[in-house]
Design brief:
The protein has 304 residues and is α+β, with helices and mostly antiparallel strands. The chain folds into two domains: 140 residues; 146 residues, no CATH class. Helix content is 38%, strand content 32%. The chain is built from two helices and 15 strands. The strands form two sheets. Strands 3, 4, 5, 6, 7, 8, 9, 10, 11, 12, 13, 14 and 15 form a 13-stranded mixed sheet that branches. Strands 1-2 form a two-stranded antiparallel sheet. A hairpin with a 2-residue loop joins strand 1 and strand 2. The termini are far apart.
Length: 304
């Protein structure tokens, strides 16, 4: 036993001798004080825990409130965009319908002009009646493309064209400010030369746009839009190098145009329904479309 411990025990013995029972009371008081201090510490700890829990609950409530406000703002923005898109599509449909009416009126005027020319040519010449059946195109409501191979003009494209074509499948295609520039010869990336029809247009409207690109092994890459949507090209002249265009002109006249079957008329407005286009290349304008999504299939080729 050390000197310090011995002295402590000696002091306690003297204390017990001089003040019997006081030391026990002191120890009892000390224990009670320690227990009270422990209870206060625990109470403070519980109070701190409650304060922290309340702070966390307040933070969570604030976070939830901000999240709800953000969600409401995003929903309002989506609603606004949907309404704006619906308005744009309605305006585009009205514009497309107006363009279709204009195209039909232009086609009707051209048909009447040709009928009048045919009637004048088939009336009499030097008092002799001419057989109308002998006049090419007489009596036809709309001129049909004639099969004719032409040498074409060499074309320098704005960018190098890919070797492989791409395809456009759409419920309708309306072209305004349209000009047909004839058959041109274009060169692809590998140096191959192909003949195509060259068109330019100021505005394009495309219903249910579906673009397809073939890849090796029967793979096809698709870019499509939302059902019923109208995609547009605006803000610039669109130049199209078309290998083949098939559809119903003005919605009623089945036509197929290619380098050997050129469009017989250069109409300023054209409207096709159920249209399928094989495109060598296309440049210019700004494309806007709704609900764009892409996917891949293995059911190729698009054109056997």
């Amino acid at each position: 036993m050390g000197l310090g411990e011995g002295l402590a025990e000696l002091g306690e013995g003297v204390w017990d001798l001089l003040t019997p029972g006081e030391r026990a009371e002191y120890e009892q008081a000390r224990r009670e004080a320690e227990e009270e201090a422990e209870r206060e510490r625990q109470a403070e700890a519980e109070a701190e825990a409650e304060r922290e829990a309340a702070a966390r609950a307040e933070e969570e409530a604030e976070r939830q409130r901000r999240a709800e406000e953000q969600a409401a703002a995003e929903e309002a923005e989506r609603q606004r965009q949907a309404e704006a898109e619906a308005e744009r599509e309605a305006a585009a449909r009205e514009e497309a319908e107006a363009a279709e009416r204009e195209a039909e009126e232009a086609a009707e005027a051209e048909r009447q002009r040709r009928e009048e020319e045919n009637e004048e040519a088939g009336a009499t010449e030097d008092g002799q009646e001419i057989d109308a059946d002998a006049i090419p195109g007489a009596g036809e409501p709309f001129p049909c493309p004639e099969e004719l191979r032409v040498p074409g003009e060499d074309e320098q494209t704005a960018f190098t064209l890919p070797d492989d074509s791409w395809y456009l499948d759409a419920t309708y295609l309306t072209l305004r400010g349209l000009s047909y520039h004839g058959v041109v010869n274009v060169t692809t990336a590998s140096g191959n030369v192909k003949q195509v029809l060259k068109f330019t247009a100021d505005k394009l409207d495309i219903g249910d746009l579906h673009q397809i690109v073939d890849a090796p092994g029967g793979v096809r890459y698709h870019v499509a839009t939302a059902p019923g949507s109208n995609s547009t090209f605006r803000n610039g002249t669109v130049t199209m190098y078309t290998e083949r265009l098939e559809g119903n002109l003005f919605g009623v006249i089945p036509v197929v145009f290619d380098a050997e079957h050129q469009p017989p008329l250069d109409l300023p407005i054209a409207h096709f329904t159920d249209v399928f286009v094989t495109q060598a290349g296309q440049f210019g304008g700004t494309l806007s479309m709704r609900g764009m999504h892409s996917y891949t299939t293995a059911d190729g080729p698009t054109v056997p």
